Amino acid sequence: MLNVFIYVVRREDDPFYGFKDAMRRRDVDYIDLIFSDETYDHIRDVEYTTKRYLMFLYYKKVYNELYSRLKELLISNGDEEVFIYLADEGFWAEMLKKIKVHLVNDSRSVKIVNVQHGFFDIERRRSEQGLLKKARVIVNTISAAIVGFPFYGYGFGGSKLDYYFVYTPLDKEFLLRHGVKRVYFTPKIIKQGFIEKYQKMKIECGEVKRLLFVMPHFVKEPGYSLKLDEFADFLLPILSIFRNIYNYEIVLRPHPGMSRQEWDNHFHRTALAKIVVVDREHTIVEAISRSSLILSLNSTALFESLIVGKIPIKVESPYIDCELHYPHKVISCKFSLEAQIRNLLEEIDSRQKAQIEWIQDEVSDFVIGIDL
What we know:
The protein is 40% helix and 15% strand. By secondary structure, it is an alpha/beta fold.
């Protein structure tokens, strides 16, 4: 049996750590497929800009590299059963499916395993069915015939891969309703590497009152436009209350997709810059462990704080309208900020830690192809 873990972007946190740990303990071999630094720089430039809406113009070289690497692995391992792990959706899932069609003959079993890496707007995903999906299928068919790979992906679960491992019961329910057959709720396995790093740090906040706000990605695209200076003005009254009334140190963590130059060009001119510290030095697990409160709009950091026992706080805004499908607290700009924050802090003090009983993997200590 051959297990291949594909890393399509650089990540602080290894989404495959828990799966590989089970394999190591049972002497099951695996291979990490890692791109060249040049390719990762190119992918970053596409994924975090509007270029991603025209990926087919930029990813021919990436497709060829992935195709040749997988072809080499499959040839060198004969007719073994193969499981290919991917922690990305949409375009990447369709690209990998197309490579599988080109490489695999009928005598070989190759399965594609998707490991959830972020949260998707399930409500929006429901609206992407029907004519829109049919149009994408037609375009992808033409694209595959011309350039060898698809133009577009089909969103969360749209590729209907062989296995899915997800964060929440609602993600599982959504995929099952859309015809995916093998779906498993395994948040702790997906975040095992993050949890172990957090536990090893054992950083105690003590009397330090530190609030971490994890910033969104500032980009203009169809249906979504968020400007850094405008968002800073929105945050200022919220974070000022935590700082001026409750004496919290305020730390902002920029989105990894935003360049330092772009951030510096806009942020230092805002009033918010005068009351916060910008943290680019610590990893996300270090930043969460050093903070007593974790706030964001919809960052995965909220779920990561929950899974290590801290209460995530979602700031509702007019910029991003989405639901979080796990326990969290809310600050809304529609109501009195001072009253909300006062009640929120009183409740957190009384509870101490988040209630995370629901985060129990439905399967554990398994190896796909042996146990599942």
